Amino acid sequence: MIDHTGVVVSDFAKSRTFYEATLGAIGYEKLMEFSKAITGSTDVAGFGEPPKPDFWISAGQPNQPVVHVAFRVNNRALVDAFYAAALAAGGRDNGAPGLRLHYHPNYYGAFVLDPDGHNIEAVCHDPV
């Protein structure tokens, strides 16, 4: 079972703002943030559903190759909201909301690129 994951970002403030807006649309919150002075290495922020973050960003040299992270949501409206929030926050389209029948009949997802080009997805596997 995965406990948490994350990505390295080149502009921490810009990415924090992007993820606050984008993940906020699906019910995630920024739950923790620690500066380099506290971690001893870099600035970090953790996002998730209270009480525990499960997705982290950290400042540094972005992952190469870029990373794909998919967030499972409970309905297709949340996929749509994620996509709209991501684009409004400066994300780039990498696949508008819609069915991806090649995965399975109810795979409804949307893909965006974050400020560093990481492929971030919201997906609903339910038929509505």
From TrEMBL:
Classification via Pfam families: Glyoxalase (PF00903)
Transmembrane segments: none
PROSITE patterns: VOC
Domain VOC: 1-125
Gene3D superfamilies tied to this protein: 2,3-Dihydroxybiphenyl 1,2-Dioxygenase, domain 1
Annotated InterPro entries: Glyas_Bleomycin-R_OHBP_Dase, Glyas_Fos-R_dOase_dom, VOC_core
Protein name from the UniProt record: VOC family protein
Record lineage: Bacteria, Pseudomonadati, Pseudomonadota, Betaproteobacteria, Neisseriales
